[in-house]
Structures are given as structure tokens and as C-alpha cells.
Amino acid sequence: MPRSTNAVSSRRKRKKILKSSRGFYGSRSKVYTVAKNAVEKSFVYAFSGRKIKKRNFRSLWIQRINAGIRQYGKSYSEFLNQLSEKKIKINRKILSHISMNDPDLFKKMVENVYSK
Predict the structure, then answer these.
(1) Where would you find the membrane-spanning parts of this chain (predicted)?
(2) How many domains are contained in the chain?
(3) Cβ-contact 35, 29 below 8 angstroms
């Protein structure tokens, strides 16, 4: 019995890789074996990039909160400690947004947190 090949799915698999490599430089977008390696590596970079993006944003929010709280002579760590002692649950993203875009509300928060 002759060997049967499934050309349809093989072609589909290669086309999928070549489509993903569109825009890559030189043979990385033309030759299947080279493109496959480039696409696999690009997926690795994309995965790790999504994790790094989260790290970068968290650090940006912390810097913004720190800049906002320094105007009142306090530090970021003191402020977050006071927030947790007062059992105020608010995340860093929202805190940074408030400190940048609504200074009056942020001032009230600071006064509320540091009031006895």
C-alpha cells in the first residue's frame, strides 16, 4: 500500500507560520524553517514582554504615588502603611490616577489617613 500524505494540513501549518512571520527581515519571512524559528522566538519574547509590562506599570504607579505624597512631606512606604492600618483598600493604579488627575481628592485622602 502506498504511503499517504496529508498535504492539506501540512500546507496549512506552513502557511500559518509564514503568515505569522510576515514583516520579518529577509529569509525570516520567506523560508519556512528559518521563519519557524523566528516565530517561535517572537512568541517567547511576546510572552515575557507581557510580564515585563505589568512590572513596569506597577513601578510607574509607585513613582507617581510617591511624587504625589512627597508634596505633603510623607513617603510612599509610610503612606501605604497608614492606608493598611486604616483598612483602606485601594490599589496602586487608582491611587496614582487620583494623585495625578485629582490633587484635591488626593489631599483629602492624605489628611484622612494621617488624622488621629
Answers:
(1) none
(2) 1
(3) yes
Copy the grid coordinates of residue 52.
Answer: 515585563
CATH number, domain of 62, equals: 1.10.1900.20
Q: How confident is the prediction along the chain (116 residues), in pLDDT tens digits per residue?
A: 777 788 899 999 999 999 999 999 999 999 999 999 999 999 999 999 999 999 999 999 999 999 999 999 999 999 999 999 999 899 999 999 999 999 999 999 999 998 86
Has residue 62 been placed in a domain? yes
* Residue-level pLDDT at 115: 84
Measured distance CA(97)–CA(92) in Å, rounded: 8
For residue 102, the SS3 value is: coil
CA distance 115 to 107: 12
CA distances to 15, 71, 93, 99 from 62, rounded to whole Å, are: 45, 15, 8, 11
Q: Residue 86 contacts by C-beta under 8 Å, 6 or more apart in sequence?
A: 112, 113
Domain that holds residue 38: 11-114
